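agent> Task received from the user: take the single chain below, predict its 3D structure, and emit structure tokens. No templates, no multimer pairing.
agent> Plan: (1) validate residues, (2) run structure prediction, (3) serialize to tokens, (4) report one or two observations.
agent> Step 1 OK, no nonstandard residues flagged.
tool_call: predict_structure(input=
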Amino acid sequence: MKDNFKRFLTFSKSERTAIIAILTIVVMLLITKYLLVKNPPKRTVYFHNLDSIIDSQQRQIDSLLTLDSIKKAERKASYKKSKNSSNQNTQKSKNRVFKEPKLKDSIHYQSFKEKTIPIIDINTADTMLLKELPGIGSSFAKRIVEYRDRLGGYIKTEQLLEVYGMDTTRFGNIENYVIVDSIFKPNKLRINYDSFKVLNRHPYLEYEDVKKIVNYREQKGLITSWEQLTEIVGDDIEPKLKEYAEFQ
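)
tool_result: status=success, residues=248
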């Protein structure tokens, strides 16, 4: 038994080398661990403060808002300056009197003339000609012609005030440029023969007026005069209808 124990404690050369190597590694590991615990590596640690981050972002936003306000103020000032400059130029242009230059040698010159507005007969003018009038565009020109067709023609220029949308200001702008030929005769409304639809289309007859006229001529016969028509329709009949009524 003693011999067996002795053999157990006896190592070969290669075994002794291996044991020494293992022990060396273990010792080196222990020394390294000790050094790391004693002198840990330096690390850069960043401590983030949420409040400071929010404050920083708010300052950036405030800076951007301030910059934007400055730019808006600059643009506003620039616009105001350009507008004043434009107004001054416009005023100078209005006050400037264009004189026709003298013809010298072979130099060509340009004459400055205002637009000439024609005098227009509102019973014969088409929409293109009516648009030459100041303040009259396509819509108003069309309305003037349509109302003229319903009337049977204008007997006075003041009847333009009856056109839908025409007011005294607009009429005042064109009053000096419109006429009605003195020999013009409007299309007559045949009180005794025109249909209900034709009579009702005329601007000076209301629906109830037309009913009274048609009922009378169907039941009692022809209407022979303006006075009789007035009695049939009533005192509220439009007096200007007399110029358009025909009883033959």
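agent> Step 4: summary for the user.
The CA atoms of residues 208 and 233 lie 8 Å apart.
agent> Done.
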